[in-house]
Amino acid sequence: MCSLEKRGNLFFLTLTGDDQHRLGPPLISSILSTLSKISSESTPGSVLITTAHGKYFSTGFDLSYARSASSPSEAVDRLKAMVKSLRPVAAAFMSLPMPTIIAVNGHAAAGGFMFPICHDYILMRRDHGVLFMPEVDLALPLPDYFATVMRERIRSPAALRDMMLRGVKVTAEEGVKMGIVDSVYDSTERTMDAAVRLGEELSRRKWNGEVYAEIRKSLYPESCRILGLTQKPLVSKI
Question: Which reaction does this chain catalyze (predicted)?
Answer without folding.
Answer: a (3E)-enoyl-CoA = a 4-saturated (2E)-enoyl-CoA; a (3Z)-enoyl-CoA = a 4-saturated (2E)-enoyl-CoA
